[in-house]
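Entry type: protein chain
Record version: 2
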Amino acid sequence: MDTTDLGLDIFDPDRWGLPADAVASLAARLHALWTRFRPCFTTTTRDASPHAWVYLRGVLTMTSKRTFANIARRVVSPADDGQALQQFMSDSPWSAQAVIAQVQTEVAATPALQHGGRLILDESPDAKAGLHSAGAARQWNGRLGKVDLCQVAVVLAFATETVWTWLDGELFLPESWFGPELAPERTRLGIPPTRQFASKVELGWQMIQRVLAVGVPFEVLLCDDLYGRSQWLRHQLRAAQVVYLADVPVDTQVYLRQPSLGLPVARGRKGRPPTQLRVLNGVTPVEVREVVGRADTTWCRLQVRDTERGVLDDRFAVREVWTVHAGEVSTEWLVMREEGGQPTYALSNAPATTPAAQLVEWKCGRFGVECANHDAKSELGWGDFMAQKFVAWEHHLALTILAGWFVAQTKVEWATQHAPDAMLAAALGVTSLPTLSGANVRELLQAVMPLQQLSPEQARRLVVKHLVDRSRSTRSRLKAQLRERGPT
């Protein structure tokens, strides 16, 4: 349709739900968020919340190199070296979990998020140059698809069709970190003595329990096959009455007819009587990849949703299966999706009355955590983190979650208070309009909260300070080398 026929100015910000007064209020919105969370940064001896304000402003308005020193220089003063901010992040005893819990409480209390929410369990690896940061090790980096030197965060995201944010996270510490040889390193980095090795699956379950305790509303938990393959985790979720749809590997075994478990009849009078449950009705398991080509597996092409890249439609198949774990027979849905000729598989404990279309929609719903991970790393400074200590990592996580909640809450409230003109979709020839991105919100915030701009003289002095610091660092290393070599 020709837009001129509708008489619309498609570039009018007001029509897109961006009135000038709403944009101008962004600075006040951020300040109000900081004010609500100020008690979380107050300890028995001091109020560290001003540093939280500086850090939030930095990660939300700077575009790159969001280190302690750079944030302090751009937000506070060109003469600020960032030492106070580093102490706030690396040594101050304020509770990161208190910040995260309050974010979860606010999510739970938001009316617009009461329906259609999903929890998504995932991990976020970050490459490291050395082994001196808490949790750094040569381990699987899912983003690169190989073993690499990295830290791995296990994260729990909350997402709807239009908003997403991290809700919780845990630093995965490989089992090697708990050996006696690394005890001095654990002490140096402030890893709590009470911390014991926990697998990624166990860390994920801990976070899910915290979210359940707060009452965050969600209709389903989604996860990839790293977590979905764990029958223990799926059992825990069923026991907690959490509906899940969990991706599973191709070799996952399922039953196509309901197995009957029981103790085999003892043969003769000799020997001990059987004590382990067995399948008694002759049903044998099959791998999920064997289900794809069976005559009784019905495939159909379904249109899941419209996306900015076009219509999302693939071939899907849904059928009832049974699994056995720890002497328990469970009925689950097997949801299969063919993407580019390659099937993927998921198991779900959704009720028997759940429409296949709903299961299919959930199967395609993990994009929310991809968006949340991208925003955290690219828009909120997660990827710029350089501190080594465990508490610094936890503090950075808490403030990243808080910044992400600011963006998500802004999007939610603006969608209600300043809805775009419905005629725009028709004018542009699309079925639905795109929503604000995290980058969009940050661009608007940058305009109303400009960072300090260095004068030419300040820039000259800052560069000289860098050169002096580098020279002193070189001198220190040379002196250390001379001491190691001894007298000549």
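Comment: The two ends are 85 Å apart (CA to CA).
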